[in-house]
Please model this.
Amino acid sequence: MKINRRIAMLIVVAIIVTLVGTIFAGCKGAVEKAVTEAIEEAVEEVEEAVEAEEEAPAEEVAEEEAPAEEAAGGVFRIYIHEPVTLDPANCYESEGIQVARQVFDVLVKYDIETLETVPAVAESWDISDDGLVYTFYLKKGVTFHSGREVVAGDFAYAWTRLTLAETASYLAYHAAPIVGYDECQEGTADTLTGVKALDDYTLEVTLQYPFADFIKTLGHVCFFPVAKEDVDEYGDLYAEHINGNGAFKFVEWKHDQYINLVRNDDYWGENAKLDEVEYKIFADEDTAFLEFKAGNLEYTAIPQGKVNATVEDADLGGLVIMKPQLAIYYFAMNVQNPPFKDNLALREAVNYAIDRQNICDVINEGVSVPATGFVPPGIPGFQEGAMKYTYDPEIAKQKLEEAGYPGGEGLEPIKFGINVGSGHEMIAEAMQADLKDIGIDIEIIGMEWGTALEAFQNGEISFFRLGWGADYPIMDNFLYPLFHSESSDNYSGYVNLEVDELLVEARKTADDDEREAKYREIEKIILDDAAFALVYFYGIRRIVQPYVKGFALSNMENYDLSKVWLEK
Amino acid sequence: MFFYIIKRILQVIPVIIGVTLILFLLMYVIPEDPARLILQKGATEEALQNLRVKMGIDKPLYVQYWRYMTQLAKGDLGTSYRYRRPVDSILADHYPNSIKLAIAAILIEIIIGLVAGIISAVKKYSFWDILVTVSTTLAVCIPVFWLGMMMQVVFGLKLGWLPMSGMGDGSLRYYILPAVTLASVSTAFVARMTRSSMLEVMSNDYITTAYAKGLSQFKVIGKHALKNALIPVVTLIGLDLGALMGGAILTETVFSWPGVGRTIYLAILQRDAPVVIGGTLVLVLIFVFINLIVDVTYAWLDPRIRYEKKEVNV
Model:
């Protein structure tokens, strides 16, 4: 009995010491570090073990049969979050888009490497001299997975469905240049009159105004063909029964678990090599990353905060894909209200005061790159160094003096609205510190997106966080929606009539080079107004297994799995 | 007993009215326009207004509420703003998974919690008692997500014994890690509650009498002590089962378990009112039902508890 007591006491003491240690360690944030280290250690060990195990059988296999170049077969497993929908008419977030792109093909698509627009279901097209009428000639023999041929009427139906008020599509505005769009949105028409199927293989589209980049917008998910009979049959549940014309057929969407696709052997193009694609749905990036390390995923995201460690990791470092994304993170200054109203020097002071490189390196772990203008690199026509503002606290201080607030004297704290979550707080705090250095005080106010937007438009806050990602790889997409005074995406309320005029003019310019030059000029004018503090271009942080071959990722995070094979 | 059960079921009606009313007020008081949530980018004012009319949210709140309740009476929980799917289909996809996980967790709670509690009460101040006391303290202290992550790393990644996430093919092995994680805190509570309740019961005269009569310890504890000590424990387990069935956000997130907790949590963040209201309503019904079962169990455990007037008057 006595011995028992002693043993018990010893165990109790040991447990208490561990417990107290954990609690104290937790206070210093060391628990996280310990967990990370433990995870990394465990991962290393397992990987070593897996490698050791795999090496031997791999040799045996090699002896039996030579590994075929571009071997067919296999299942490609990808991490995604639960998509909102797979219905092309409403596929607005990256998760649904990446699935839908494997299942559907549209008239044109974007080359993964160059982002150039290349023909897909459309074999060729004509454009009328006035730039208003587009006639598309469709490929014959392209079929839906149900077996029925895709005809021009399927596009006319899908585009009408996209624009009808009753669809309440988040993406309808992409069809805004087409004749009849306004009537469909207002609910006064039930057909998009600007889109006509002249016969099964000829589609005629009439625009409201000349828009030279129109073809380049058509690679968007919302323009995918939809078979009317599917929508009639499944109604609200159509997204769970999508029937496309792409390289992979949709099989099943088990919500919050997986989405399965299989190869379409009747594909109009070159058949895919993979047998299946399994999108595994995770609630948490970290869990997916563990599954990747355990070899249960072929492709996943690197969790925020783990980028540096992964890049430096001897085994994982070489598998990392990091590249700039076609998206920008910026802050709008309220030019309709003081203190930014009619004070260019103050706005410039803010622009010179921000240490963008620091934000990219420290907070974003080098994934993002400092913004150099509104249009990100990768978009045809991108101009290097469009923005003259670089980090220079000295110039910032001079500008502040010019603005009438030497050393910040006389300037009330500026109210700075951010929508809470997604790490905006850290970036706002970094900016707060930068601005404090030159004498500008800002007060950070966390609010809901809608509330913040309203507060900005009412003038209650003077500074507001915004972001924009490319819908299509054209300069217009970063300028017209955001800065034309009548665009519904112009949340900042920026008005410059000269810019309005030039934007419309640029859209009408048929020659690519000439048009891009005009957009570059517009970008400069907007930047010179300094109504925005641009921070960075978003970056992509992904990782792919070494045995995955033929995998390429575009700056829009698009990939084409029909080209991928597994070498294992 | 039959009338009592009927009465309790009828009591659900005012509960539903109360819950929907409160949720309705809460979800609609916040200054977020559901039409903006659906259309956001590029939406013109006309398109927004059309949608508001279509959704009926241009009407006064009481009209909207009446509309919701009449639809509810027909069994229609509405359509999710975000997913554009019927709410009942979303809930049908997720509730069964939460219920299955909750049952697995409750089984662990009952088996390990009760056994540990009984041993620790019967062998008061022994090694086992101290071990139970310390390990329950630990179980309560360790954050659920941390425990989950550690178990994933150890049993999933390092040892490769168990799957780390998801439901897979639905086999038992997928339940082990999330269920243990989910049950950890409650198991500790059940053990502690059983221990103290048992100790209290065992100090009663009738237990001494039972021993004096020469009954075996097994019989004394199993038949006389445990049954009386279980009442507070059953209450605890009942409440916990209700809570677990509502989903467990942390466990579901760490293990990517397709349960209802995360679904409702995301719906709250996204202001997806139909999902929040529908999901909560189903949860309330489950709670009411479990409470009913708990009350009926009381009567079985303690014959002195009677719910019908006639018997109370006797």
